[in-house]
Design a protein that fits this description.
The chain is an all-alpha fold and 287 residues long. It has 2 domains: 1-28, no CATH class; 31-287, no CATH class. Helix content is 76%, strand content 0%. The protein has 11 helices and no strands. Helix 3 crosses helix 9 (196-250) and helix 9 packs antiparallel against helix 10. It is elongated and about 90 Å long.
Length: 287
C-alpha cells in the first residue's frame, strides 16, 4: 500500500505540477509509439539479461513490493515463542525429542499454534534444516554456525540477483528514451520543409521519448529495485534471527538466553522488549 502512495505522489507532483503550474497538456505526452519502443526494449533487455528463474523472482519480488515488508513485530513474537517451546523440549528430553516436529512440521503440535510461522515455507525449511543435523548427530554443535553462514550467504546472493537486474533496467531506461528520441528526430528530418506545426509535433514526440525513459527510470523502476532490496533484507534478517537462536542453544545456552541473544539482533521497530518477551514466554500453553 505504501508503494502505491509513492506512485501517486510521483505522478501527481510531476504531471500535476506540469499541468497546473506550467500550463502543460497531458495529451502532448500521449505518443504510444514512444512507449512501445522504450518499455518494449526495456522488457526485452531484461529477458536477455536474466535466466527464467530470475525473471520469475522479479515478478514475485514486484508483487511482494506492492504488499510491503512481510514481517511484523508479531512475526518475531511467534518465532520466539515457537523456538522457546522447541528448546525447552530439547533441553528436557534431548534433541531427539524434536525429531517429529522437525520432520513433519505441518503436523507438529508446536508449529500448528503459530500459523504465520508455519506458512512461511522459507523460514520453516531453514529452521528444520538447521536443527536436523544436530538431532541426527551428523555434525557437532560448534560446526553448525559456519554451516548456516554458508547457507545464508548463498540465499543472500541469490536474493540480490533479481534486484540487480531491475537496477540495470532502471539504468538502461534513459538510454532507451534517447533511442526513441533519435528515431523521432529521424522522422522529424523527413518532414523538414513541410508544415511547421507538423514538424513541431514530431519534435515534441521525440522529446517525450527522452522524458519517458528518464521518468520511468528514476520515478518508478529504480525505487522499485530499492524497495525489493529492503524486502529481501527483511527475509535474511528473519533467517539470521533463527540462526542466532539455534546456534546459541545448541552450543550450550539456556532456552531463555538463546532467545534473548536472537532478540537483540532484531531491528528496533520489530524487536519485542525484554519485558514483552518475558510475558510471551509465560503465556505459552503446553503443546
Amino acid at each position: 500500500m505504501v508503494i502505491a502512495i509513492g506512485v501517486i505522489v510521483v505522478l501527481a507532483t510531476v504531471l500535476g505540477g506540469w499541468v497546473f503550474l506550467g500550463h502543460g497538456n497531458i495529451g502532448n505526452l500521449m505518443h504510444p509509439g514512444e512507449y512501445v519502443i522504450i518499455l518494449g526494449a526495456a522488457f526485452g533487455s531484461m529477458i536477455i539479461m536474466a535466466p527464467k528463474t530470475v525473471l520469475f523472482e522479479i515478478a514475485k519480488g514486484t508483487v511482494e513490493a506492492l504488499k510491503g515488508i512481510p514481517y511484523s513485530k508479531k512475526s518475531y513474537e511467534e518465532l520466539f515463542q515457537a523456538l522457546y517451546e522447541l528448546f525447552m523440549i530439547g533441553r528436557k528430553n534431548g534433541m531427539i525429542a524434536l525429531e517429529d516436529h522437525v520432520n513433519e512440521p505441518a503436523s507438529s503440535s508446536i508449529f500448528s499454534k503459530y500459523s504465520s510461522l508455519l506458512s512461511n515455507k522459507t523460514a520453516m525449511a531453514f529452521l528444520c534444516e538447521a536443527l536436523s543435523p544436530i538431532i541426527d548427530g551428523r555434525i557437532k554443535a560448534e560446526e553448525l554456525k559456519p554451516l548456516l553462514k554458508v547457507q545464508l550467504d548463498k540465499m543472500d546472493e541469490q536474493g540480490h540477483e533479481p534486484i540487480n537486474i531491475v537496477l540495470k533496467v532502471g539504468d538502461a531506461l534513459p538510454g532507451f528514451g534517447i533511442v526513441a528520441a533519435v528515431l523521432g528526430i529521424v522522422n522529424t528530418m523527413q518532414a523538414i520543409g513541410g508544415d511547421p506545426k507538423l514538424v513541431g509535433e514530431k519534435v515534441g514526440s521525440a522529446l517525450v521519448g527522452t522524458f519517458i525513459g528518464i521518468f520511468m527510470a528514476y520515478g518508478f523502476v529504480t525505487p522499485l529495485a530499492v524497495n525489493m532490496g529492503f524486502i529481501h533484507q527483511s527475509k535474511i534478517d528473519f533467517l539470521k534471527c533463527i540462526s542466532s537462536a539455534v546456534v546459541s542453544f545448541t552450543t550450550g545456552s539456556a532456552p531463555a538466553m538463546a532467545i534473548e541473544i536472537a532478540r537483540r539482533g532484531v531491528n528496533s521497530d520489530l524487536r519485542p522488549g525484554a519485558g514483552e518477551l518475558e510475558e510471551l514466554i509465560k503465556s505459552i500453553k503446553p503443546a
